[in-house]
Amino acid sequence: MYKRLSIVMFPFLLLAVIGASVWGYLEHQEKNTILIKAENQYQRAFHDLSFHVDKLHTELGNTLAVNATSEPSYRKGLVNVWRLTSQAQSDITQLPLTLLPFNKTEDFLANMANFSYRMSVRDMTKQPLNEQEIKTLSALYDHSAEITKEIRGVQDKVIANNLRWMDVEMALASENETRDNAIIDGFSSVDKKVGAYEELNWGPGNLTLLSKNDVKMLSGNNMTADEIKQKAATFLGVSDTAAMKVVENGGSAPELQSYSVILPAAQGNENDTQLDFTKKGGHLIYFMKPRTVQASNFDLRQARDIANEFLDQHEYKNMSAVSYDQYQNTANIIFAKREKDVTIYPQQVSVKVALDTLEVTGVQATDYIYGQKQRNLGQPKISTAEARKQLSPNMKVTSETLAIIKNDLDEEVLCHEFIGTMNNNIYRVYMNADLGGQEKIETIRPKQAEAASGAAKK
Q1: What is the pLDDT of residue 440?
Q2: Residue-level pLDDT at 26
Q3: Which residue from 72, 124, 178, 442 puts its CA 20 to 30 A from 330's CA?
Q4: CB neighbours of 141 closer than 8 A, spacing ≥ 6?
């Protein structure tokens, strides 16, 4: 009986074993294919990085070799430096270095990209590179030579020893193994060298990754946690502060010092309410009362009016809506400071309004609070009519006003702001009110144009 049963079952077992073997082989092949593809991508990104850093060093040398008064040559060289630095940053993001401390090198490249971009877009016929900027370029040339040498050394080891980036990824992901990988050691050495460089003067308008807030612009004295609780209670319209939790942020860095106030959700509510205040002066910079909004019983105009009234009741005075939008039954309205009929875009406040009850559920006011300063709002040197002549004759202008914006150099400039339609699109165009020429152009949606038009007419 067992003999007959085994004769019958043997073909099925054999097929099962063959099927399992084939499946396992195919899975193994597929896994190998994925690993090979990932390894090839890592190798390509690494060798591209080595090439771009090498070219970056060469381009910095070429830029320094020409006369500082040669505006076209300097501009071309700086544009190439910016392009190569951006490409090197892109190469780094494609490598498995997220668990490896490499932030100093990334910050260095980001600052170099910002520096070269700001220099390249500047009118050098009116503002040529000064002695300090030439000195910074020379330092970048020297530093890039060292970085190139280090990365070439890693590249030589990779080629000579046939090193794999997949081993790097596994070594970084493992918490038990010591990280003695040659590639990891090489990149750690690069970051250590960059961290030891003397701080460079990147210029007053440098667009750093973590721009520091200017606490000198804040009014008032440093607040205690209890005083912040009282401010939060006043803002929320409650009398009992016992349930509030206050956390101090920022450590010893003045530009980061703030308080976070957490009010636990009442029974039946969804989430806690959070407010952030500056330590100096106790100014509200963030408020969020998250909840699900089930329906839209009111329109965006009504939400805008409620938000405007809300800001006026607090410390955000003379604000005008410049754009508003709707998402999941919640209106998001952006307001800008309005002073002497000039819209000041660097001072903005974003307000969220629930469209079921018109309750204000969020405020983001960091730009407004830290953007306060004395501005000389003089008369434009170029008239509205002259600025308008520089627009396309095909644009139908629907509104015009004066505005202060930040240009590509992160400098505040006075502009003529025009909103108009062309090619079935709506555009917001900023023309420099003192020097002429276009500073910025944006494509906007109909609702945003409506809001900006309304602000211009106020």
Answers
A1: 87
A2: 57
A3: 442
A4: 57, 60, 61, 64
Q: What DSSP state is assigned to residue 217?
A: G
pTM here?
Answer: 0.60
pLDDT tens track for 328-358: 899 999 999 999 889 999 999 999 999 999 9
Whether the per-residue pLDDT at 443 is higher than 90: the answer is no
Q: What is the pLDDT of residue 207?
A: 43
Separation CA 270–CA 312 (nearest Å): 28
Cα–Cα distance list, 454 to 18, 303, 445 (Å): 75, 14, 14
Yes or no: say if 194 and 105 are a contact pair by the CB < 8 Å rule.
yes
Per-position DSSP letters for 29-85, written without gaps between them:
HHHHHHHHHHHHHHHHHHHHHHHHHHHHHHHHHHHHHS-TT-HHHHHHHHHHHHHHH
Please list, in sequence order, all residues whose beta carbon lies within 8 angstroms of the beta carbon of residue 418, skipping any fewer than 6 positions away. 387, 388, 391, 395, 397, 399, 400, 428, 429, 430, 431
Residues 331, 355 contacting (CB under 8 angstroms): yes
Contacts of 58 (CB under 8 A, 6+ apart): none
What are the structure tokens assigned to 166, written together?
Answer: 């997949």
Alpha-carbon distance of 371 to 392, in angstroms, equals 33
What was the pLDDT predicted at 214? 59
Q: Which fold has domain 384-457?
A: Nuclear Transport Factor 2; Chain: A, (3.10.450)
Residues 6 or more apart in contact with residue 289 via CB below 8 angstroms: 271, 273, 359, 361, 362
DSSP string covering 322-389, please?
EEEEEETTEEEEEEEEEETTEEEEEEEEEEEEETTTTEEEEEE-HHHHHT---------SS-HHHHHT
Cα angle 414, 415, 418; round to 5: 155
3-state secondary structure of 272: coil
